[in-house]
Design a protein that fits this description.
With 124 residues, the chain is mainly alpha-helical. The chain contains five helices and no strands. The protein folds into two domains: 1-84; 87-124, no CATH class. Bound molecules: zinc ion (2 copies). One zinc ion (ZN) is lined by residues 101, 103-104, 106, 108, 110, 115.
């Protein structure tokens, strides 16, 4: 069940990227990100209020809003992780920090495997 929830959030993240461009939420400042997140939380709160005031079951609507809240939070976390943890932009493996790569012996920013593939491609 947990896996299904993560899949729903992932699908919503992909939808966001398609709608606003792959890096949209990652390129805006923290203020704007908080506005977007608060807006989504506000929409979820509105559904909760309607459920209470109108006595109707809007669970499926609430579910949709909560997925959006989670997806916006995930997008923000993706940005923070990207800034804090150096990882290979090709395969996504986490690097041991800005230390020389064991393939090219420079701080190339790639893992040794991708670095060697890249240098082979360059030579061709
Ligand atoms: Zn790599
Ligand atoms: Zn390298």
């Amino acid at each position: 069940m947990i896996k299904r929830v993560f899949e729903l959030i992932r699908a919503e993240r992909d939808k966001q990227d398609k709608k606003w461009g792959a890096n949209a939420i990652r390129t805006v400042g923290p203020d704007s990100r908080m506005c977007i997140l608060a807006e989504e939380v506000g929409e979820a709160a509105e559904v909760v209020n309607r459920m209470r005031d109108e006595g109707v079951d809007l669970t499926s609507e609430l579910r949709k809003e909560l997925i959006q809240v989670a997806a916006v939070a995930v997008a923000w976390l993706e940005k923070i992780e990207f800034d804090c943890i150096p990882y290979c932009p090709i395969c996504g493996v986490i690097l041991d920090g800005p230390i020389p790569c064991s393939h090219c012996w420079a701080i190339c920013g790639y893992c040794p495997t991708c670095c060697s593939i890249l240098s082979k491609e360059k030579k061709q």
